[in-house]
Fold:
Amino acid sequence: MMNTYQEARDWIEGLIPFGIRPGLQRMEQLLDKLDHPERRLKFIHVAGTNGKGSVCAYLTSTLIQGGYDVGTFTSPYITKFTNRFQYNGQDIEEETLLQLSNELRPHVEEIAATDLGSPTMFEVSTALAILFFARVTYPDYVVWETGLGGRMDVTNVVNPVISVITNVGHDHMDILGNSLADIAREKAGIIKSGVPVVSTADQPEVREIIRETASAKKSTLYLIGEQFHETGLTVGPEEQSFSFVGLFRTIDPVTITLTGAHQRKNAALALMTLEVLRQYYALVIDDEDLVKGMRHASWPGRMEMITSNPRILLDGAHNPEGAQALAAALKETHPYKKLRLMMGMLANKNHQDTLRHILPLVDTLVVTEPDFRKKMAAPELASLVAEMKGQFEFELIVEPDWELALQRLREATETDDLGVVTGTLYLISDVRARLLNITDTEKGW
Structure:
């Protein structure tokens, strides 16, 4: 029996060495032992390479604004482990997490003793989320983000009311496959028979795979550029607006405070998802609440202006598509004289393609290391940068200690400059806590 939240968290994090093990058998057994609480919930299942968190934020904010009770399950967390399990935008209580962990533990240990081996940290977190929603809070909808991929992802044990696929890009290729087509097949694995699918995937081969999967499952598909469209109207450093044209109606203008053209796509994806629910599942949200909910949505660590003097922007662009979106947003939205950028990465990523989008813009690049077990050493990242530096003119600073690196960044960023911290969310999480003086932080995963 565990007596404190800290013990419960230590137990769950103690399962990390079991890693990411594809397959849903352990998860299905666990839910079987719990009498399938997931069957009582209405899930909106969100998969994709980038933009999942933002889409979840738009959906959660707008549903709450419309008067619905909403559960949200996301990962990794930015400040504290409890961020992953939210009800109406509030974290799970530590005491509740402890109680649910005590309920889960004997079942987890029973499965660990079989040939299947121990459920992983993510499997236990997912089961905990299901218990929190099905037995404690009873939300009208659960906004349900996949961990990794889709088809074999642990979250795929649920049967949602709608499936949402953001984009498909180059990430986790060590697990999901080497080509975009392979990754697309994994993401399309969340499509269930007869359940509608909404997607903003834009590459032709990816759209084809999503189309084929939806057709095979007899699921109605809503694709950006076909069944719905967005057109940018105004762009500013604080907010932007766009016109949304869907199959059922036009909503114009919609204003959001997350910046970058990619965020308009994410917002349009959330809107189309809500439109399908409105049309076929009797979801009722007044237009006024719809517009207010979209405007109020925020997502920490994504294009987030964290301090104004000096101006420091945080953006967890940790793969090529994320870096491309960041570069486009910097050009479109944030005026600056010099760009000072700090970056820390994990060791398992394809960094050349990420750097390709960033290096042409920077005047100073500070290379550092996240405080995390899978970090890439700063000198190693710096040598990749040096190989590519040829055609660009910028100052390169290598500072493995992220706190000293942040200090260097802040000193270098003058009044008309823009400081940006980017790379893995594990780095973003620590920098954000430091700049906002948040003391109650835990390491995300």
